[in-house]
Write a structure and sequence with these properties.
The protein has helices at 16-60, 74-86, 102-107, 114-127, 129-145, 149-161, 166-187, 190-197, 205-215, 220-242, 247-256, 258-269, 281-289. By secondary structure, it is mostly helical.
């Protein structure tokens, strides 16, 4: 009798248990795919954030960035701040105690009111000590800027010798000394020390302003305008106390001299030693006669 083969036959029927296993597997695969998508999205956002932030941080650390206030750079804002401080009437150089000969001119009745004060100051500014002082400031500034210490020393010596009277010498040298001492105490820097070391004699006021401005990298043009504005303002202050005139008239005189200040600054910025000179003989005479004036409120 031939042998009978026996075996097990696989059933093709799908049971409920198998359906549950397949559903569980599909759910797990879906969860894994979702988690991977979340991780990829998070990493992409972080990468974009870092790439965007790096230029912003670099721009914030740039020293010459443009400030949102008026479009000025940090260096320009610092220069403006220092000029306003150094040439303010509150800066303690003692300018309030000098009149540059205006006191004698008032006593001699050369100056009697606001219009005559304006005329006198316009002459001093454009053809007298105002222009010469501005020219010396410009030459001192260029000497420091170019690191030409020999030229700086020559400018300092010529400016000190150019003063027409003993009282004017006291006025400009004492203010120059005070200006440098206070500027070094509060805003000292290596270029300023180097420049001052080359000047052996006294440093008059305009040369001192030129040296300090250049040492702090303040451009020449705004330094000249600020200096001349401070000079004229001090003259007007002396005149308003001597004549006297009111505050409104004083401001009218200052406003009327705006064009003369700008013109003097433009001339001085390109002037050489050959351009120096004064034609204000009456103002020079006033500073000389002030020395023997009987009643005086000012030191010059």
């Amino acid at each position: 009798m031939p042998a009978r083969r026996t075996g097990m036959r696989m059933s093709s029927t799908v049971t409920p248990v198998m359906i549950m296993h397949m559903a569980t597997i599909m759910i797990m695969v879906t969860i894994i795919i979702t988690i991977m998508a979340i991780i990829i999205t998070t990493m992409t956002i972080m990468a974009v954030t870092i790439i965007t932030a790096i230029p912003m941080l670099m721009a914030a650390n740039e020293p010459s960035r443009v400030d949102a206030f008026g479009g000025m750079t940090d260096a320009e804002l610092a220069a403006l701040y220092r000029l306003m401080t150094w040439l303010s009437p509150a800066f303690p150089v003692g300018g309030f105690s000098y009149s540059s000969g205006i006191e004698w001119a008032v006593e001699a009745q050369d100056i009697t009111d606001a219009p005559s004060l304006k005329g006198w100051l316009a002459a001093m500014l454009t053809d007298g000590s105002g222009f010469c002082d501005a020219a010396f400031l410009a030459q001192a500034h260029r000497g420091v800027e170019a690191d030409d210490l020999r030229a700086l020393q020559e400018t300092a010596e010529l400016a000190a010798a150019f003063v027409p009277s003993r009282e004017r010498q006291l006025e400009t040298s004492s203010q120059g000394r005070a200006f440098i001492e206070i500027a070094r105490a509060a805003w000292n820097c290596a270029p300023l020390d180097r420049a001052l070391a080359s000047c052996a004699g006294p440093i008059v006021y305009p040369v001192a302003v030129g040296i300090v401005s250049a040492a702090h990298a303040i451009p020449l043009a705004p330094a000249l305008h600020a200096f001349l504005h401070a000079l004229v303002s001090n003259w007007i202050s002396a005149g308003s106390r001597l004549i006297p005139i009111g505050q409104t008239d004083s401001q009218r005189v200052l406003a009327a001299l705006e064009v003369d200040v700008a013109a003097t600054a433009r001339r001085a910025i390109s002037a050489t030693s050959d351009d120096l000179g004064s034609a204000t003989f009456r103002a020079d005479l006033a500073s000389l006669r002030h020395e023997t004036q009987y009643t005086r409120l000012f030191r010059s």
